[in-house]
Design goal:
Shape: flat
Number of helices: 6
Distance between the termini: 24 Å
Strand content: under 5%
Largest sheet: none
Number of strands: 0
Order of helices and strands: HHHHHH
Helix content: over 70%
Length: about 170
C-alpha cells in the first residue's frame, strides 16, 4: 500500500487536535484515573502499585485514548481537506455529521429522515442508560458532551488552526 492515497494533513494540526481531543476524552475517563490515583496513594510502596493490575489498566486506557485521539484528529483533518471546508459553519456541519455517524452507525446515509432516526436512536440509548443500566445522569451528560467536543469541537478547532500542508496548492 502506498502512502500517496492518504491525504496530507499539517502535522501541527494533528498534534494540537490530539491534545484537544484527549483533554475532551479525559473528562469521561477522569473518574477512573481519580480512583486509580487514590489507590496509588493507599499502596504501601510505589513499586507495589506499579506492578498492580490497576496501574496496567490505567496505562492501557490512557495509551489507547491518546492513540485514538491522534487517529481521530488525522481523520477529521483529512475530511476537512478533502471536502474543502473553510468556514466555521461548514466545520460545524461536518462535525455534526461525524457525531451522528458515530452515534448511530447502523443508520446508513445521512439524509433528513436518517438524521431524525439517528437523533431518536441517540435519545433511546440515553434513556436506556438511565433506566436499564442505572447510570447517573451527570455521567451520561458528561459523556455526551465529550462526544460533541470530540467531533464538532475538533472540526471547529482544526478549521481555526488550519489543516492544509501547503495552502497554495
Amino acid at each position: 500500500m502506498s502512502l500517496h492515497y492518504l491525504p496530507p494533513v499539517k502535522p501541527s494540526a494533528i498534534a494540537l487536535g490530539t491534545v484537544f481531543n484527549h483533554v475532551a476524552s479525559l473528562a469521561v475517563l477522569g473518574p477512573a484515573f481519580g480512583d486509580t490515583y487514590h489507590r496509588a496513594q493507599a499502596a504501601n510502596s510505589k513499586e507495589e502499585f506499579v506492578k498492580s493490575k490497576e496501574a496496567a489498566s490505567a496505562a492501557a486506557a490512557w495509551g489507547t485514548s491518546l492513540a485514538g485521539s491522534a487517529l481521530q484528529s488525522y481523520g477529521v483533518g483529512a475530511l476537512i481537506n478533502a471536502t474543502g471546508t473553510l468556514s466555521y459553519k461548514g466545520a460545524a456541519y461536518l462535525g455534526s455529521l461525524i457525531f451522528f455517524a458515530s452515534s448511530a452507525p447502523s443508520v446508513g446515509s445521512l439524509n433528513s429522515v436518517n438524521v431524525r432516526m439517528a437523533l431518536l436512536m441517540r435519545f433511546i440509548k440515553f434513556i436506556a442508560q438511565i433506566v436499564t443500566e442505572k447510570r447517573p445522569l451527570d455521567t451520561i451528560a458528561v459523556g455526551a458532551l465529550a462526544r460533541v467536543f470530540e467531533t464538532v469541537g475538533l472540526s471547529l478547532f482544526l478549521t481555526w488552526w488550519g489543516t492544509h500542508t501547503n495552502p497554495f496548492e
